[in-house]
Design a protein that fits this description.
alpha+beta; two-stranded antiparallel ribbon; Small Protein B, Chain: A; about 150 residues; 9 strands
């Protein structure tokens, strides 16, 4: 089995909006046309989230554009998609996701070999003041880098 992976989409805003506590790699149950569309890079993780329903985990609002050359009329672009996890991972996610304040957020969509995978993070939302702190620290670091670069 191939160990390489090709990144298709990344949810960088998730790292700004949430404290990432733990990540899980999950497969996706997709149609053939959806896989072809993802291979073309026509997928978006913006505003998507995971939810536990009936002992299974589903991904909502992940947008996959319809594949142009498909003969079959494609399903809804933002339909819910089942995530494929091992039994132990599923139990762990179900137990932790039920805790108050924790959310399932997809961070990356990629191909590992021939299989479409998504990294699902167990995350806790940041407060507004925490986000401001991150921005302030980033600006301070930029200023320091400018000063140090100018002295050389």
């Amino acid at each position: 089995m191939a160990k390489y992976y090709r990144l298709i989409a990344e949810n960088r805003k998730a790292y700004f909006d949430y404290h990432i506590l733990e990540t899980f790699r999950a497969g996706l149950a997709l149609t053939g046309a959806e896989v072809k569309s993802i291979r073309l890079g026509r997928a978006n993780l913006h505003d998507s989230f995971g939810r536990v329903e009936g002992g299974e985990v589903f991904l909502y609002n992940m947008h996959i554009s319809p594949y142009d050359k498909s003969r079959v009329s494609s399903a809804e672009a933002t339909r819910r998609r089942k995530l494929l996890l091992t039994g132990s991972e599923l139990k762990k996610i179900i137990g932790k996701a039920s805790e108050k304040g924790l959310t399932l957020v997809p961070t990356k969509l990629y191909f590992m070999g021939d299989w479409a995978k998504v990294d699902l993070a167990l995350a806790k939302a940041k407060k507004k003041y925490e986000k401001r702190e991150v921005i302030r620290e980033r600006e301070i670091n930029r200023e320091v880098e400018k000063i140090l670069k100018g002295k050389k």
